[in-house]
Amino acid sequence: MNNFNEVEQKVAESLLQIKAIKLQPKSPFTWASGWRSPIYCDNRITLSHPAIRTYIRQKLAQLIQEEFGSVEMISGVATAGIPQGVLVAQDLGLPFTYVRSSAKDHGRQNLIEGEVVEGQRVVVIEDLISTGKSSLQAVQALRDAGCNVVGLVSIFTYGLDQAVKNFADAKCPMFSLCSYDALIHIAVKNSYVLDSDVEFLQSWRKDPASWTPAQ
């Protein structure tokens, strides 16, 4: 018996189906951080699939309304959070901004692109959460600009303990449509991985920075 809701399971199925998420327990990936990982996620691929893109947009918008109520602006985290954020802002009829990873080195040297009004209730959109570091840098930039950032939503989270702590420390509620546990459940159910791979996949999340593939 599992506790995963319909949205979690449908998003997991979709991400696996279009290979936005790949699980390779026997042949791990190497992330930009240098971490070795049996999972790789590129949710930009959802943008090329209209039905999946629409479902994700609708469910992110619904999640925002359920968890945060009245919101005055949507802001995306560059770069993968920008298109998702635009779609959600359009769905909710709200203004949109996005936060760069670093300020431009020319012109007005903007870190935040778009019109920011001090005191606005803002929800930040991200495509996925690993440690949460880059996402929370965007949150802080918006707060520094006078925004009232009420929380962040994403398509997928790895559910790392470090991310949970980072968001708690930043006093920024975070919600995702799909979790690592739900993904593994669906991956086993639909034969993307074997039952025997589950313990191995779960061991990565316990200590991703020092995890090494089984020999």
TrEMBL record:
Signal peptide interval: none
Q: This chain belongs to which protein, by name?
A: Orotate phosphoribosyltransferase
Similarity section: Belongs to the purine/pyrimidine phosphoribosyltransferase family. PyrE subfamily.
Cofactor list: Mg(2+)
Phosphoribosyltransferase domain mapped to chain residues: 48-168
Which gene produces this protein? pyrE
What enzyme class is recorded for this protein? transferase
Q: What keywords sit in the KW lines?
A: Glycosyltransferase, Magnesium, Pyrimidine biosynthesis, Transferase
Give the enzyme's EC designation.
2.4.2.10
Describe the reaction catalysed, as an equation.
orotidine 5'-phosphate + diphosphate = orotate + 5-phospho-alpha-D-ribose 1-diphosphate
So what does this one do? Catalyzes the transfer of a ribosyl phosphate group from 5-phosphoribose 1-diphosphate to orotate, leading to the formation of orotidine monophosphate (OMP).
Kindly give the Pfam families that the UniProt entry links to this protein: Pribosyltran
Q: Which pathway?
A: Pyrimidine metabolism; UMP biosynthesis via de novo pathway; UMP from orotate: step 1/2
Residues where 5-phospho-alpha-D-ribose 1-diphosphate binds: R100, K104, H106, E126, D127, L128, I129, S130, T131, G132, K133, S134
Give residues annotated as binding orotate: S130
MF terms from GO for this chain are: orotate phosphoribosyltransferase activity
